[in-house]
């Protein structure tokens, strides 16, 4: 088993472990504890992890998904765990908020209406949504792109984290 | 299917809204959804076609696989910008950044339209904080969109498509100066 595969298995095991930990289903817990521990151990000893075992693990993942469908979602808190994990962007957000406000006021003479840390509901990817008043324009998109182009010249890294939205 | 049909159906929905205000909110949310896929497919088809041609000759199967998910096209623009910038093609890198911006912009609108529907669960806490999908408190008024929002979702999408295609041309011109193996490596890693 190559390194990438071992990494994938470990990631899968970690997800399953957190589901197990947060699940209040004792039957599910007893069903999963042993194979998860085995996988965690064996993914660090790749030669022992064979195709058959990966297939078994995949089957368990499917069982978890099916089981989750029949449970009250409040019993399954791994998603909440993911959303509560503090990201680097979240930690730095107060400073970034201040910086964004300063840049907009100084360079564009615009006071942002709101600066929101937004997390994609689909994959948890984070972006900072900055809402600004655009005023009269035939093409709000063109105006937003123009501001974004200037913003990129000022601070490219910061600009890559920002999605500009109209507030009007 | 021609990706323009995503836009055509959004225009039909827009027409319907004029005669039936009971479907205003769901109508605008559906338009936001269709517009994103219109732009994603326009960008993706054009990129696939260009990268399959001389001098890249990238396998159709690989392109189909790698660009099958919309987020991967966005990631392509992000990685391509970095690659072009490393090789000092900064203008071309800016075009890649801009395409990423356009897709991320309409993607964010689409996500808010599809997920942030002001459900009873949301109103319990005033935000989605305790919901598995943490969408924070950003919202868009799809029930009564302002003129600016109407333009963004009706007259601006063809402009966005035009910019995406024009930028693709510039990005591809830049990539022609990069080693073919590096371009393939970038696509394989998506």
Report what the structure shows.
The complex is a heterodimer of chains A (168) and B (190). Chain A has 2 domains: 3-83, no CATH class; 88-166, GMP Synthetase, Chain A, domain 3 (2-Layer Sandwich), CATH 3.30.300. Chain A has helices spanning 3-22, 26-42, 51-69, 78-84, 88-108, 140-154, 156-161; strands at 114-119, 126-132, 162-166. In chain A, strand 1 (114-119) and strand 2 (126-132) form a beta hairpin. In chain A, helix 2 (26-42) packs antiparallel against helix 3 (51-69). Chain A has 7 helices and 3 strands; from the N terminus they run H-H-H-H-H-E-E-H-H-E. Mean pLDDT of chain A is 75; it is low at 72-83. Chain A is 62% helix and 11% strand. Chain A is mainly alpha-helical and 168 residues long. Chain B is mostly helical and 190 residues long. Chain B has one domain (4-188). Chain B is built from 9 helices and no strands. The radius of gyration of chain B is 19 Å and the shape is elongated. Chain B starts with a helix and ends with a helix. At the A-B interface, helix 4, strand 1, helix 6, helix 7 and strand 3 of A face helix 5, helix 7 and helix 8 of B.
What's the quick description here?
The complex is a heterodimer of chains A (168) and B (190). With 168 residues, chain A is mostly helical.
Percent in strands of chain B = under 5%
Shape of chain B: elongated
Point out poorly predicted stretches of chain A: 72-83
H and E order of chain A: HHHHHEEHHE
Question: Total domains of chain A, how many?
Answer: 2
- Biggest sheet layout of chain A: 3 strands, mixed
Average predicted local confidence, pLDDT of chain A: 75
* Major sheet of chain B: none
Order of helices and strands of chain B: HHHHHHHHH
Q: Report how far apart the termini of chain A are.
A: 55 Å
Q: Say how many strands of chain B there are.
A: 0
Helix content of chain B: over 70%
Number of helices of chain A: 7
Q: How is the quaternary structure best described?
A: heterodimer
The chain pair forming the largest interface, with residue counts per chain, is: A-B, 37 and 33 residues
How many runs of DSSP E, i.e. beta strands of chain A?
3
Beta fraction of the residues of chain A?
5-15%
């Amino acid at each position: 088993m190559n390194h990438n595969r071992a990494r994938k298995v470990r990631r899968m095991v970690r997800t399953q472990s957190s589901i197990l930990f947060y699940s209040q289903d004792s039957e599910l817990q007893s069903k999963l504890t042993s194979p998860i521990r085995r996988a965690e151990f064996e993914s660090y000893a790749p030669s022992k992890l064979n195709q058959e075992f990966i297939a078994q693990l995949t089957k368990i993942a499917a069982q978890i998904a099916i089981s989750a469908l029949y449970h009250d979602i409040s019993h399954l808190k791994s998603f909440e765990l993911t959303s509560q994990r503090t990201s680097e962007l979240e930690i730095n957000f107060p400073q970034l908020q201040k910086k964004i406000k300063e840049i907009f006021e100084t360079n564009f003479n615009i006071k942002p209406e709101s600066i929101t840390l937004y997390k994609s509901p689909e994959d948890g990817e984070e972006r900072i949504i900055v809402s600004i008043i655009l005023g009269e324009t035939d093409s709000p998109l063109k105006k937003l792109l123009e501001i974004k182009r200037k913003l990129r010249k000022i601070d490219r890294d910061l600009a890559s984290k920002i999605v500009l939205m109209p507030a009007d | 299917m021609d990706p323009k049909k995503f836009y055509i159906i959004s225009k039909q929905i827009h027409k319907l809204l004029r005669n039936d205000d009971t479907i205003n909110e769901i109508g605008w949310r559906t338009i936001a959804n269709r517009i994103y896929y219109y732009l994603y497919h326009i960008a993706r088809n054009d990129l696939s076609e260009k990268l399959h041609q001389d001098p890249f000759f990238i396998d159709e199967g690989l392109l189909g696989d790698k660009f099958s998910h919309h987020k991967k096209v966005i990631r392509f623009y992000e990685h391509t910008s970095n690659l072009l910038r490393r090789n000092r093609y900064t203008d071309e890198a800016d075009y890649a950044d801009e395409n990423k911006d356009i897709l991320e912009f309409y993607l964010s609108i689409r996500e808010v339209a599809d997920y942030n529907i002001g459900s009873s669960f949301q109103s319990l806490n005033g935000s989605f904080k305790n919901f598995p999908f943490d969408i924070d408190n950003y919202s868009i008024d799809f029930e009564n969109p302002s003129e600016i929002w109407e333009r963004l979702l009706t007259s601006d999408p063809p402009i966005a498509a035009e910019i995406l295609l024009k930028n693709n041309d510039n990005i591809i011109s830049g990539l022609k100066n990069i080693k073919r193996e590096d371009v393939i490596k970038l696509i394989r890693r998506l």
